[in-house]
Specification:
Blueprint (H helix, E strand, L loop, with lengths): L12 E5 L7 E5 L3 E8 L10 E9 L2 E6 L5 H8 L8 E8 L5 E16 L12 E7 L2 E6 L1
Antiparallel strand pairs: 1-6, 2-5, 3-4, 5-8, 6-7, 7-8, 7-9
Length: 145
Amino acid sequence: MATHRDPFRNFNFLLEIDGIDAAGFSEVSGLSSEYDVIEYREGSDALTGVRKFPGLRKYQNVTLKRGIAGDKRLWQWHDAIAANPADRRAVVISLLGPDAAPVCRWRLLNAWPSKYEGPLFDAAGSDVAIETLVLTHERLELESD
C-alpha cells in the first residue's frame, strides 16, 4: 500500500546567492521554463494536420522580494552590472521540508540583476518596506532529494 505524502509548504525556503548572504527573502517567483512551439505542415498533410516541435527553451526572470534592513549588497550588485556585465552568479533556491532539510533545489545559472525596485512609501500605512530584485539567468535546473 502506498504511503500518503502531504505537499510541502511554500513559505519554508532558503535562498543563496554567490557572495551575498540572502536570508530574509519573503517571496520568490518566476521559477519557470518553457519551449517555443514550432508548427510545421507539409503540403501532403491533411488540412487539419499540423505537426508541433519543441523550439528554443526560455526561462522567465526570477523576482525576489525582501524587507529592507540596511544591507545594500543587492543594490551594489545591480549597480555594478553597468561596469562589469560579466558579474554573473549562481543562485540556489531550496524548498525546505518539515525538518528544515532541503527537499528540492532550483539552480539559476549565470544570473544577474536586470531590475531593482525600491519600496512603495505610504505615510498612512504600517507595512514593511519591501525591495525587489529581478534576476535574469541563462538556465534553470531542478534537483530533488
